[in-house]
Amino acid sequence: MPLSILCVCLGNICRSPTGEAVLQAALPQARVDSAGTSNWHVGDTPYGPMQTAARARGYDLSTQRARQVTPEDFHRFDVILAMDSSNLTDLQAIRPSDARAELSLYLDPLDNAPTDVPDPYYTRDFDGVLVLIEQAAQAWATRLG
User: Is 15 annotated as catalytic?
Assistant: First the structure.
């Protein structure tokens, strides 16, 4: 059975959809998905400027739709990667006691990197976020592949 990975951010319209696309490219044999801890954008496509930045680097986010993470996700996925510490705290709060998924921060495998992937919805640094996500995806591919 292929490795399954869930990328999680707050709204599932910037960081986690990008994490999904980049990780899927780095680990083509894996099953990768994304979700948000909030329900603010359920059903929405990823944020336009994030899609534009991702497309410029060869990633297509257009078919993705935002969804909210569920307790069942902790049984469906092997690894759940939070984009920031706040997302990780939210995930730990809803994690079932018998969950099989390992929780980690998306940037954990990087040395000398920030703990959190900055939210480009607020920072407007879509390219900088993509660089961090790509670096971490390669590190995860080495670790998990």
Answer: yes
